[in-house]
């Protein structure tokens, strides 16, 4: 089978596309994949590293207020559709799959104009602008939360599949997670990640929390700062460290995240939908600080779905401080029974068969062609 994948800007859109590509390649060995993204998005680096062919188009997102930039975006969209048609005409895919982010717009739209079967995957409870726009043109939609289906009621084939990232983390090697962090097997550790790009508010809280961690003996802390915040955060952490610095590990980005997640005891992060799919698939308890800077405040809706089920503690960013974070960490790490209950609730929300459900939908769309 020949499949075009598109989606990006941030990891939350890229990794679901890669997980779908992986499922296709495993189920139909010899399949050909082409990823279409932008050269500025994280995908331009991550996708070629996975050995998948990559082509780029130039496109930007719409701004919410009226501006000349939006006029330029319309021009870029038209040019992007033209370039996508050329790329699709050359590659001749059986199906085009979009996983959100504005790069999907011209690619999936062009595919639908060319009569190529199209599918979009929505990761969040509240759909993004691009997927809402594309919903008028696509042949199928896969959603990650049951309540999102209502936004796509005019689409022909809507399935509640979950997020394919949930499938890829289950295949991860836990021992390699410990090994890559330089930790002895089964060392308990708290993993803190502010999404694929890092989060300044979370990094600041970590720096405040670091002097307190001596009060939680035996537990390691893995801080992933995001590339752009790494240098300043790492320096600030080193300055505020107490004596036991060998329990603190700081990284700009982690490339083997599924392995590291699989080994972790507690997750602290934003409430990006792909991460949430991964931690629930593995049954990891979490403390979530949703980003208030996203469309329709969708991360709070994402986080609430875990908090309501007892799988997570949610802290709103306005209430975030190093002390608040420390108190929650201490009470979860220090109470195995509570941790167990949260872990069970987390696992109960996991949808590990997501990639397979989406693969079946791809086959259905291909056969209907
Ligand atoms: C600021 C913003 O717009 N965030 C959106 C973005 O989040 P963001 O891009 O942060 O995505 P998520 O938090 O959902 O997922 C991050 C993905 O990147 C991977 N990863 C992350 C860090 C790292 O060091 N290594 C690594 O591999 C994770 O395993 C995961 O697969 O897309 C999500 C999915 O549509 C949305 O819910 C978020 O609201």
UniProtKB/TrEMBL annotation:
Entry protein name: UDP-N-acetylglucosamine--N-acetylmuramyl-(pentapeptide) pyrophosphoryl-undecaprenol N-acetylglucosamine transferase
EC nos: 2.4.1.227
Gene Ontology annotations for the cellular component aspect, listed alphabetically: plasma membrane
Catalytic activity: di-trans,octa-cis-undecaprenyl diphospho-N-acetyl-alpha-D-muramoyl-L-alanyl-D-glutamyl-meso-2,6-diaminopimeloyl-D-alanyl-D-alanine + UDP-N-acetyl-alpha-D-glucosamine = di-trans,octa-cis-undecaprenyl diphospho-[N-acetyl-alpha-D-glucosaminyl-(1->4)]-N-acetyl-alpha-D-muramoyl-L-alanyl-D-glutamyl-meso-2,6-diaminopimeloyl-D-alanyl-D-alanine + UDP + H(+)
Pathway in which this enzyme or protein is active: Cell wall biogenesis; peptidoglycan biosynthesis
The entry's keywords: Cell cycle, Cell division, Cell membrane, Cell shape, Cell wall biogenesis/degradation, Glycosyltransferase, Membrane, Peptidoglycan synthesis, Transferase
Enzyme class name: transferase
One GO molecular-function entry: UDP-N-acetyl-D-glucosamine:N-acetylmuramoyl-L-alanyl-D-glutamyl-meso-2,6-diaminopimelyl-D-alanyl-D-alanine-diphosphoundecaprenol 4-beta-N-acetylglucosaminlytransferase activity
Domain Glycosyltransferase family 28 N-terminal: residue ranges: 3-142
A Gene Ontology BP annotation from the UniProt entry: cell wall organization
Membrane topology: Peripheral membrane protein
Gene: murG
Location of the protein in the cell: Cell membrane
SUPFAM superfamilies: UDP-Glycosyltransferase/glycogen phosphorylase
NCBIfam families (UniProt xref): murG
UniProt binding sites for UDP-N-acetyl-alpha-D-glucosamine: 10-12, 124, 196, 254, 299
Domain of life from the UniProt record: Bacteria
Organism: Cohnella luojiensis
Stored InterPro entries: GlcNAc_MurG, Glyco_trans_28_C, GlycoTrans_28_N
Family: Belongs to the glycosyltransferase 28 family. MurG subfamily.
Role, per record: Cell wall formation. Catalyzes the transfer of a GlcNAc subunit on undecaprenyl-pyrophosphoryl-MurNAc-pentapeptide (lipid intermediate I) to form undecaprenyl-pyrophosphoryl-MurNAc-(pentapeptide)GlcNAc (lipid intermediate II).
Domain Glycosyl transferase family 28 C-terminal: 190-356
């Amino acid at each position: 089978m020949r499949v075009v994948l598109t989606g990006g800007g941030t990891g939350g859109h890229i990794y679901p596309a890669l997980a779908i590509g992986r499922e296709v390649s495993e189920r139909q060995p010899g399949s050909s994949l082409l990823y279409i993204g932008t050269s500025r998005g994280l995908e331009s680096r991550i996708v070629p590293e996975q050995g998948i062919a990559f082509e780029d188009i130039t496109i930007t997102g719409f701004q919410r207020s009226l501006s000349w930039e939006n006029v330029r975006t319309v021009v870029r969209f038209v040019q992007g559709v033209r370039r996508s048609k050329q790329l699709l005409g050359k590659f001749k895919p059986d199906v085009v799959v979009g996983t959100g982010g504005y790069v999907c717009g011209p690619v999936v739209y062009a595919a639908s104009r060319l009569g190529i079967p199209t599918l979009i995957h929505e990761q969040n409870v509240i759909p993004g602008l691009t997927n809402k726009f594309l919903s008028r043109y696509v042949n199928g939609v896969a959603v990650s939360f049951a309540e999102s289906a209502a936004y796509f009621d005019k689409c022909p084939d809507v399935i509640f599949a979950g997020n394919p990232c949930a499938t890829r983390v289950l295949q991860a090697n836990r021992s390699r997670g410990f090994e890559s962090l330089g930790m002895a097997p089964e060392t308990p550790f708290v993993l803190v990640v502010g999404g694929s790009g890092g989060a300044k508010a979370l990094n600041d809280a970590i720096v405040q929390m670091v002097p307190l961690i001596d009060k939680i003996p035996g537990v390691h802390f893995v801080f992933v700062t995001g590339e752009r915040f790494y240098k300043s955060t790492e320096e600030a952490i080193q300055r505020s460290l107490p004596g036991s610095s060998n329990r603190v590990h700081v990284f700009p980005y982690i490339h083997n995240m599924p392995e590291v997640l699989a080994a972790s005891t507690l997750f602290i992060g934003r409430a990006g939908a792909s991460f949430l799919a991964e931690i629930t698939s593995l049954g990891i308890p979490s403390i979530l600080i949703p980003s208030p800077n996203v469309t329709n405040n969708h991360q709070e809706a994402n986080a609430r779905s875990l908090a309501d089920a007892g799988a997570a503690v949610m802290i709103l960013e306005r209430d975030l401080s190093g002390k608040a974070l420390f108190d929650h960490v201490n009470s979860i790490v220090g109470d195995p029974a509570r941790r167990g209950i949260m872990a069970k609730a987390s696992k109960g929300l996991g949808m590990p068969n997501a990639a397979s459900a989406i693969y079946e939908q791809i086959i259905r769309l291909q056969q209907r062609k």
